[in-house]
Each structure stands twice: as C-alpha cells, then as structure tokens.
Amino acid sequence: VQLVESGGGLVQPGGSLRLSCAASGFTFSNYNMIWYRQAPGKERELVAAITPAGGTANYADSVKGRFTISRDNAKNTVYLQMNSLKPEDTAVYYCKVPPFDSWGQGTQVTVSS
User: Fold this and answer.
1) CA 31 – CA 51 distance, rounded (Å)
2) pLDDT tens digit string along 29-81?
3) Contact between residue 93 and residue 107 where contact means Cβ atoms under 8 Å apart
4) Which of 61, 63, 80, 90 has the fewest CB atoms in 10 Å of its CB?
C-alpha cells in the first residue's frame, strides 16, 4: 500500500486549499478512505471519511461545513477541499485506508496571515 499526499501549503485565514492523496497497491474502489491531521503537540485526529463509492461522507465537527471529501476511483485518488481555513486547521494532513497500517508522508497545511 502506498499513499502520497500533496497540495498543502501556506494560506491566509479564510483561504482555500485542495489536498490530494494518490493511492496504489490495493483495489482503491473497494475501501473507505480517511483524512487525518496532526497539529504540533497534539494527537492525530480524524478529519473526514468517505465510503468506497463516494456516496457517504462523515466529518469531524470542527470542519463540518468547511471541508469536503471526495474521490475519483478511476484515478485512485481521494481529495479534501478545504474552504474558510482557520489558523487552528494548521497541521500535517494524512490519508489512510483501513485496515492497512500504511501512512504516507503527509502534506503540511499552514494557515497564517
């Protein structure tokens, strides 16, 4: 299993970013996909999850209404559209496919003026 996150960067409060996670090594369309994040000094937390066909998504309360998870099974890629970003969204963002233990390198998101 290989997961490669990209799309992070420095953005001002209120701005937007779209993260991507390219997956390989398993049948992507058969599995839920999850985005996590880890802020400095804090534990990793679940941000959003999506079912294999993309019909159902769930979000942490802290990002509901601002973030949207989606997937393209033809491209083996899951996305996280992040709008109305806040400084507290600053973290390294990771994707994961349960039940596999693999983690990618993550992508840094910094929200600061």
Assistant:
1) 7
2) 999 999 999 999 999 999 999 999 999 999 999 999 999 999 999 999 999 99
3) yes
4) 61
